[in-house]
């Protein structure tokens, strides 16, 4: 209730100050928009809250249905492909739009955007505007959240241990080793140097890509780090990914004993309780540390835009070479950085087969969520799960400080996000047909088996290579080459 | 009586009997077929048809499109992937057979073949087909076991499933039967225990999974102080393959022991008291009464209950999905869970292929158990 009041007050205030025109009253009277998304308050909650405001403004009724995360994609695909059409809008990972669009299921939003004078498209950060919202050059989704993974560190813990924040993954291990076992929350118990969600069928496969990206991708976003884009041969069974796997596993030495069975909910509970010195996460901890149940870490959890690598993969020789201006043109001081846009952010897409009135109301609602007046408030509240994706949200720390963020943390947090978004070597999540199979099944399974000691790193990488080849063959190599070019913007 | 029998006799047609009479006679003659036809039709539509339709999935690469599903025939590729492709280790485990593994496999294979050869003299050719299938499955499973677990390698989802079925069901059967035997005795408060023992069966597997996950949490669960006292504060069951499988089996047993319990209790309470009393009069001990009177009479029920439980156990999915997500690695992943994960990623063909492999495994193992164990025990009292 407290959050609802806070959000309503901020919205009304923002609308009043910003002179945001409300949609015409009763414009969508009698229209119901059915939205499917993930369960719980995160992501779904603001859709419900904003939906009530939107209904008061336009007459359109917003109905939000929540299903387990793993069910979202198959349910939407099934509903839209079979013509059931009980769902009008899906709010899901931006990257999933490619496969749905390939099946001809997504409404082209460009005509709506052209007639929309409130969305302020230029204010959306280029990565999310071009890679998140567009498929094949056309706008097919509207972001409600901007996602990429960062590393967070406890400033008080590192200061006490006399160590600097990590720059490379080797530094990460070094720092984690030095702070592991310290009492980080004053409860008399030893706490953990590193916390990463390593449970299978959860988010672990995103984190490993965050480790691999700065080692494998050196020449900008369009280069990618999963495949040889010309042939779609997997670029995984090599020294770069091997090193990433080994580094990733090594972090477990400084993590909670049950880390292999921890998903993001578990690690968030740990860091909010003050038990983690370092962690890999999305943008959420920046605002989650302001929650009442995270009082022991408020203002102490700082972000690093990206952890880099001093060695990068030479794709011709397959060996690791020092990061130089030649081998890694975007490297800085011999360190190659590649912030990984894991998941790509939550975005809304409209069912192409919905009726015209519903599609119009659905677009207006997604636009309403996306517009600076609303999204600028939502991203400052940790409970929403929404992270910044607009330039205006990142231009000033004022709103963040107003939301309760200490100035120093606001400077650090926005600085980290801005730094990542401005990085020309930002690495993109996989956005081709079968992306779920490539990553959430094959990569995730082999990674989990390697972490559990079932197989060696060499076997894991060989299995992934073979599995990815099978998927590419299934979908058609030429089609996948084309899809990859579109996904990475290299065509 | 005579009158009733007369009405059952077909009436002779008189010369010039009408079509109506003949139709009535025909309908009367086939009435059984007419009555059963709706049920058979419904079964065909809702049970058999989906099973057959899924074969198309298993043999295809299936993709969604704006016009529905699109099938591309890929032959047995979805199946071969499980045995020779990228999923081989995941499904079968690491197959690197040791010398001891070869020796053990040789012994098992020889025993199975000897049993098969002996069968020639005692069964029909139809029976030989069935026994050959059972023998082939036994030799295949023996090789996988000897090449993986016996040779010190990891097992795959195939043997993880069989672990839940064979070891889990055996433990559940022993404990469930033991509890039923205790509750069938004239002890005070037995009705209270009957209700208590039965409760877990009424809880949804999802609820059991979450409850067990909380109970088994070594850092915040109720047993955390006990583990700390025993010096096992850093021990984590979910990080070790066998302790995770064992925990899964304990959770599954907690839910399903009541099923064995209630069935066996009913069987035990149906044993005529006069048989037992006669044995007592003859001076038989409790052990003798159990071995010679009680057990033979409940045996047909026992093996049937075990068969039903095994069929159910092959489908275990909720507990490993909730408690470990199939981990650590793929240690607790059953074939059903594997099929579900692949389905979630839209590989409908791969998912259907695994479902068919599970179906084949379940049918052969359970049919073998039924033919060679259940039927044997059911026929025994009659002979």
Automatic annotation (TrEMBL), chain A:
Secretion signal, residue range per the UniProt entry: 1-26
Pfam families: SBP_bac_8
GO cellular component, one term: periplasmic space
Subcellular locations according to the entry: Periplasm
Lipoprotein found in the keyword field: no
Entry-linked SUPFAM superfamilies: Periplasmic binding protein-like II (SSF53850)
Main localization of the protein described in the UniProt heading: periplasm
Transmembrane segments: none
Domain of life: Bacteria
Keywords attached to this entry: Signal
PANTHER family: ARABINOSE-BINDING PROTEIN-RELATED, DIACETYLCHITOBIOSE BINDING PROTEIN DASA
Family to which this protein belongs: Belongs to the bacterial solute-binding protein 1 family.
Protein name, per record: Various polyols ABC transporter, periplasmic substrate-binding protein
Species of provenance: Candidatus Rhodobacter oscarellae
Organism lineage string: Bacteria, Pseudomonadati, Pseudomonadota, Alphaproteobacteria, Rhodobacterales
């Amino acid at each position: 209730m407290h959050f609802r009041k806070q959000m309503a007050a901020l919205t009304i205030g923002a609308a009043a100050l910003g002179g945001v025109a409300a949609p015409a009253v009763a414009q969508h009277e009698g229209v119901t928009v059915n939205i499917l998304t993930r369960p719980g308050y995160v992501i779904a909650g603001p859709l419900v809250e904003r939906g009530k405001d939107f209904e008061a403004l336009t007459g359109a009724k917003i109905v939000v249905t929540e299903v387990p995360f793993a069910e979202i994609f198959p349910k939407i695909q099934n509903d839209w492909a079979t013509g059931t059409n009980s769902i009008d809008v899906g709010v899901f990972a931006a990257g999933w739009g490619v496969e749905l669009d390939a099946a001809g299921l997504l409404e082209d939003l460009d005509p709506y955007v052209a007639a929309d004078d409130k969305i302020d498209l230029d204010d959306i950060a280029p990565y999310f505007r071009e890679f998140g919202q567009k498929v094949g050059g056309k706008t097919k989704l509207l972001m409600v959240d901007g996602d990429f993974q960062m590393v967070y560190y406890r400033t008080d813990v590192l200061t006490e241990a006399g160590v600097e924040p990590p720059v490379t993954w080797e530094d990460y291990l070094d720092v984690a080793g030095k702070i592991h076992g310290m009492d980080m929350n004053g409860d008399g118990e030893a706490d953990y140097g590193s916390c990463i969600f390593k449970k299978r069928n959860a988010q672990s496969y995103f984190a490993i890509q965050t480790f691999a990206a700065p080692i494998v991708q050196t020449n900008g976003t369009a280069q990618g780090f999963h495949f040889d884009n010309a042939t779609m041969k997997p670029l995984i069974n090599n020294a770069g990914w091997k090193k990433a796997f080994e580094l990733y596993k090594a972090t477990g030495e400084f993590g909670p004993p049950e880390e292999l069975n921890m998903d993001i909910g578990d690690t968030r509970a740990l860091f909010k309780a003050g038990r983690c010195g370092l962690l890999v996460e999305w943008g959420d901890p920046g605002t989650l540390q302001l929650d009442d149940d995270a009082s022991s870490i408020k203002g102490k959890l700082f972000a690093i835009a990206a952890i880099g690598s001093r060695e990068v993969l030479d794709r011709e020789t397959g060996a690791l070479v020092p990061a130089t201006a030649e081998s890694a043109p975007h490297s800085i001081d011999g360190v190659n950085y590649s912030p990984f846009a894991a998941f790509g952010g939550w975005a809304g897409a409209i069912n192409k087969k919905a009726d015209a009135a519903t599609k119009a109301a659905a677009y207006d609602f997604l636009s309403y969520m996306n517009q600076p007046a609303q999204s600028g408030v939502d991203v400052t509240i940790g409970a929403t799960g929404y992270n910044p994706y607009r330039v205006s949200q990142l231009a000033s720390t004022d709103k963040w400080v107003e939301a309760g963020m200490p100035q120093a943390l606001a400077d650090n947090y926005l600085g980290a996000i801005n730094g990542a978004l401005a990085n020309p070597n930002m690495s993109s999540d996989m956005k081709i047909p079968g992306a779920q199979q490539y990553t959430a099944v094959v990569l995730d399974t082999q990674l989990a088996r390697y972490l559990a000691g079932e197989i060696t790193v060499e076997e894991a990488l060989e299995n992934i290579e073979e599995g990815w080849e099978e998927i590419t063959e299934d979908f058609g190599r030429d089609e996948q080459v084309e899809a990859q070019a579109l996904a990475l913007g290299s065509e | 009586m005579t009158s009733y029998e007369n009405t059952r006799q077909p009436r002779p047609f008189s010369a010039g009997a009408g079509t109506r009479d003949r139709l009535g006679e025909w309908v009367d003659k086939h009435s059984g077929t007419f009555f059963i036809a709706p049920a058979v039709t419904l079964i065909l539509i809702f049970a058999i048809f989906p099973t057959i339709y899924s074969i198309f999935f298993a043999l295809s690469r299936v993709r969604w499109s704006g016009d529905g599903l699109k099938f591309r025939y890929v032959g047995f590729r979805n199946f071969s992937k499980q045995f020779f492709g990228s999923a081989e280790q995941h499904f079968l485990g690491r197959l690197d057979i040791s010398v001891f593994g070869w020796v053990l496999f040789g012994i098992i294979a020889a025993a199975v073949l000897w049993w098969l050869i002996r069968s020639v003299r005692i069964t029909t050719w139809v029976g030989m087909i069935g026994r050959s299938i059972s023998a082939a499955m036994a030799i295949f499973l023996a090789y996988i076991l000897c090449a993986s677990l016996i040779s010190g390698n990891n097992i795959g989802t195939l043997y993880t499933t069989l672990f839940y079925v064979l070891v889990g069901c055996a433990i559940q059967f022993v404990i469930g039967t033991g509890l039923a035997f205790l509750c069938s005795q004239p002890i005070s408060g037995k009705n209270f225990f009957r209700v208590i023992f039965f409760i877990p069966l009424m809880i949804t597997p999802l609820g059991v999974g979450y409850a067990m996950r909380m109970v088994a949490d070594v850092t915040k669960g109720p047993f955390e102080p006990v583990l700390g006292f025993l010096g096992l504060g850093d021990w984590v069951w979910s990080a070790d393959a066998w302790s995770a499988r064992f925990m899964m089996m304990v959770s599954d047993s907690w839910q399903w022991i009541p099923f064995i319990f209630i069935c066996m209790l009913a069987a035990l309470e149906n044993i005529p008291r006069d048989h037992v009393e006669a044995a007592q009069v003859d001076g038989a001990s409790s052990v003798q009464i159990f071995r010679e009177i009680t057990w033979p009479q409940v045996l047909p029920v026992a093996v049937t209950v075990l068969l039903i439980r095994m069929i159910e156990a092959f489908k275990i999915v909720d507990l490993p999905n909730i408690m470990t997500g199939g981990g650590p690695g793929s240690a607790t992943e059953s074939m059903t869970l594997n099929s579900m994960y692949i389905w979630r990623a839209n590989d409908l063909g791969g998912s259907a292929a695994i479902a068919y492999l599970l179906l084949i495994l379940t049918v052969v193992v359970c049919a073998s158990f039924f033919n060679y164990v259940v039927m044997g025990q059911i026929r025994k009292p009659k002979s």
